[in-house]
Structure formats: C-alpha cells, structure tokens
Amino acid sequence: MLKNDLFLRALNGETVKRPPVWLMRQAGRYLPEFMAIREKYDFFTRCQTPELASEITVQPIRRYGMDAAILFSDILVIPQAMNIEVEMKPNFGPWLPNPIRSQQDVDNTIVPNIHETLGYVMDAIKMTKEKLNDEIPLIGFAGSPWTILCYAVQGQGSKNFDKAKGFCFTKPKAAHEMLQKITDTTILYLKEKVKAGCDVVQIFDSWGGMLSPTDYQEFSWKYIDQIVEALADDAKVIVFAKGCWYALNEMSKSRASALGVDWTCSARNARYLSGGNITLQGNFDPSRLLSPPEDIKRMVTQMIREFGKDRYVVNLGHGILPNIPLENVSAFIDAVKEHND
Ligand code: 1CP
User: Fold this and answer.
1) Are strands 279-284 and 312-316 parallel, antiparallel or unpaired?
2) CA of 269 to the centre of ligand 1 (A)
3) What is the pLDDT of residue 326?
4) CA distance 299 to 320
5) What does the pLDDT look like over 235-244, one tens digit per residue?
C-alpha cells in the first residue's frame, strides 16, 4: 500500500482534498544535484546504471515532495533496442547516424527481446521502488510510435520533422510497418515496466501536434490506442499529446485513465472536448515558471479552480525548462499542497 496515493485516486476519478502534482521532466535539467551527476557520466551511462537512474529519479522528490516520481530514462532507448543507433550529443541532443529512410531500413529493425536489450530499465525500476519506500507512485513512460518515428527518420530533433512526415506521405506502407514495429516493442516494454514496479505509465506524444487532425488519426492515435488497450488491464495509462487538443474527444473514448493538456488549450475547452468525466493533467505554461513566485502561486490557484480539484492532476503543459529558478518550482508545488477550496 502506498502512503500517498493521491495521484492514483485522481486517476481513478475519486474525490480528493487537493489535486496531486508532479512535473513533466522533473528528473534532471534544472537541479544542481542532477548537474553534478551529469558532469561525471554521459547520458546513456546515466540511463543504463540503475544506481544513477534511481538516484536521479528520487532527487526532485527529496527536494520538493511531488506526489509521483517519474523514472529517469529516455524515450529513445526504444529505437536503440530496435537496432537503430542513437547517440546523445552534448549541447546538440539526439543524433541517429543511420536514420530510417527506406523499406530496407524498416526491415533491418527488430522487435527486440526486452530483457536482453532493456533489462537495465527494469533493474532501475526495482532499485527506485526500494528508494521510494512505498511513499508515492512511480511513473514509467514511453514515446508514442509517431514521436519515436520522428527521431528514427529525421535522425535528430527538428522544428517541423519534415523528413519524418515526407516518409509517411511518400512511403506509407513502410511507415506503417515501422509504426507497428515500434508499437509492438512499446507494448512489450511497458508491460515489463509495470511488472518491474511502475504504478502508472505515460505515453509522450511530443510531436503529435505536427500532424493535421486527419493525419493524426492515421499515423499517431491509431497506434497509441493499441498501446492503451494492451496496457489498460495492467496499469493506469496517461496519454500526453502536445498540440493535439483536436484529438481530446476521440482520446476520451479510449481506456486511458487521464489525458495531458498543453497550455494552448483552456481548462474549459479541454473539459468540454473530453466530455467532462476523464481525468485531465496539465497545463501550466513551462515558461510561466519564470514569473515571480507570488505570481506563480496565484496562477496555480486559478488553474486548479478552472480545472476543478477532482479528476485533475496538476502539471506543466510540457517539460520543465532548464533555466527555472529552484524557488519558483517550490512556489508551484507549495501552491498545490496548500490548496483547500
Ligand atoms: O545529457 C542530458 O542530460 C541530456 C538531456 C536529457 C535528459 C535529462 C535527454 C536528452 N533526455 C533526458 C531524460 C528524459 N527524457 C526523461 C527523464 C525524466 C525526466 O527528465 O523527468 C524523460 C521523461 C524524457 C522524455 C523525452 N525525451 C521526450 C518526451 C518528453 C518531452 O519533453 O517532450 C522527448 C521528446 C525526448 C527526446 C530527447 N531526449 C533528450 C533531448 C534533449 C530530447 C529532446 C530533443 C528535441 O528537442 O527534439
């Protein structure tokens, strides 16, 4: 039994005293204790060493006491396990030297044995659960198949993922085969993560908003929905699709326990589009954490009033930025914890 199960109760739609709070990308980036580890070990060493990954996961919890922890890892461990080389270049980001551009490239990828390729993630989960000592739930995550395909084809981050979109529109058969392979791998992976101890899983569709509403259904939602269906009996599933307010209605009919909302969609509109019954998560503008602490507190209170305290998880509308003052994060978390309407 978890000592603080507020997050799980909000995902269940139960009445709560205050909404739970955690921050997307809370592990890493802005914390000095993370930067100290980052100086000593390269990115994939941090991911692949359970002692380091579990330590980075609990760092923000020790400092701020969020209501959920998210495992330190990356969405790009999936293409890596599928036989696609992925490097993380300092001050540049992901770099995939041999991107997927043809049917032959798709054929060369594999749906891997999860224990052989990603066993280190399961070890990190087990070690993190020990460190968390049943205080709060642990979130495991994966990228959506579309968002993974974006990197696998583009070969790096991008403002528009033009090569990834071009691949889907000119070689749809190869693209769908690739998306299905990523989906199959992700289902196996997330099921193992739940078995290893994750209480909740979140699917990050960071680049879903690059697609038109029609293309979104074909190239992204169709595959996310397969993952949600496959996992729903095992764990609570949250779908965060940035820029995809237009899909909230369709998503609300799935077996997801909660839907993420970014800051371009109002609480009222998100509630309306999602039918009013499903738990929503979000949607503070990450840049708004640059505001003075008293402004942050006022805006958080306002945001909780707009979403309502029930069926709601307080979060940002995307990941926390690296340049946020530590006391501003405190103001955000404290405002939620002090909330009692
Ligand atoms: O050396 C470093 O520290 C590199 C920075 C870094 C970190 C800290 C990367 C490279 N990944 C991560 C960890 C990470 N990535 C987590 C761990 C938990 C946490 O930080 O709380 C998570 C949840 C992710 C997920 C992730 N990676 C997403 C989805 C969420 C989102 O922010 O949209 C995406 C798109 C990535 C790709 C990625 N990995 C790293 C970078 C710099 C990027 C983004 C590149 C781009 O902008 O395209």
Assistant:
1) parallel
2) 28
3) 96
4) 17
5) 999 999 999 9
Question: Other C-beta atoms within 10 Å of 39: how many?
Answer: 7
- By most ligand atoms within 8 Å of CB, the mutation choice from 75, 86, 263 for ligand 1 is 75
How does the average pLDDT of the chain come out, rounded? 98
CATH architecture for residues 6-289+310-323: Alpha-Beta Barrel (3.20)
Which residues, given as ranges, of the chain have pLDDT below 50?
Answer: none
Of all protein residues, the one whose alpha carbon is nearest to atom 47 of ligand 1 is 157
> Looking at ligand 1, which residue's alpha carbon is closest to its atom 19?
25
CA 239-264-299 angle, 5° bins = 100
Cα 185 to middle of ligand 1, angstroms: 19
- Cα–ligand 1 centroid distance for 305 (angstroms): 30
Pair type for strands 93-95 and 87-89: antiparallel
pLDDT of residue 235: 98
CA angle, residues 333, 337, 340, in degrees to nearest 5: 140
Eight-state DSSP code of residue 221: I
* Predicted pLDDT at 1: 86
10: buried, middle or exposed (CB in 10 Å: 19+, 13-18, 0-12)?
Answer: buried
| CA 200/CA 194 separation, integer angstroms | 8
- Residues designated as active site: 25, 29, 38, 74, 151
pLDDT of residue 197: 98
Q: Which residue minimizes the CA distance to atom 24 of ligand 1?
A: 74
* C-alpha–C-alpha distance, residues 59 and 135, integer Å: 14
